[in-house]
Design goal:
Layout (H helix, E strand, L loop, with lengths): L1 H30 L6 E2 L1 H17 L12 H7 L4 E10 L4 H9 L2 H8 L5 E7 L3 E9 L1
Parallel strand pairs: 1-3
Antiparallel strand pairs: 2-4, 3-4
């Protein structure tokens, strides 16, 4: 019974985090006249895998330790995409802080507001490393 409670609590926490991320991202997009995104667990999985790779291998880059780029990571996550973009950050202690940093950066802001983006996934891993993946299915 206790294990079931812990699993339900983790699922509820993940769903809450997804809604919080989606709300912050979509508020930023709405302020610029962009359409709302949906949250996609496959994009979160791609983001988490890259964040965990960076944490484990001690690097910070859009290129994975195996030479992968965002396209390769999206394919690994089973996402058939026609558009993909990735934001990375390190050190921010909250979703609000990382979104503020990204919105203050021309390239990261462009990714968040990109007209082709239809979905988003976000992961925060060890060492306050953040990875956001934005994409659109084909």
């Amino acid at each position: 019974m206790r294990l079931m409670f812990v699993v339900l609590l983790l699922v509820a926490s993940a769903a809450q985090a997804d809604r919080a991320t989606l709300g912050v991202v979509n508020n930023a997009r709405a302020a610029e006249g962009r359409s709302a995104l949906v949250y996609d667990a496959r994009l979160e999985a791609a983001a988490r895998a890259h964040g965990e790779d960076m944490a484990a291998q001690g690097f910070f880059s859009h290129t994975g330790s195996d030479g992968s780029d965002i396209g390769a990571r999206l394919r690994r996550a089973g996402y058939d995409f026609c558009f993909g973009a990735e934001n990375i950050a390190a050190g921010q202690k909250s979703l609000v802080n990382v979104m503020s940093a990204w919105m203050d950066s021309r390239g990261h802001r462009r990714n968040i507001l990109h007209r082709k983006a239809k979905a988003v996934g976000l992961a925060r891993v060890e060492g306050d490393r953040w990875v956001m993946v934005l994409a659109a299915p084909c």
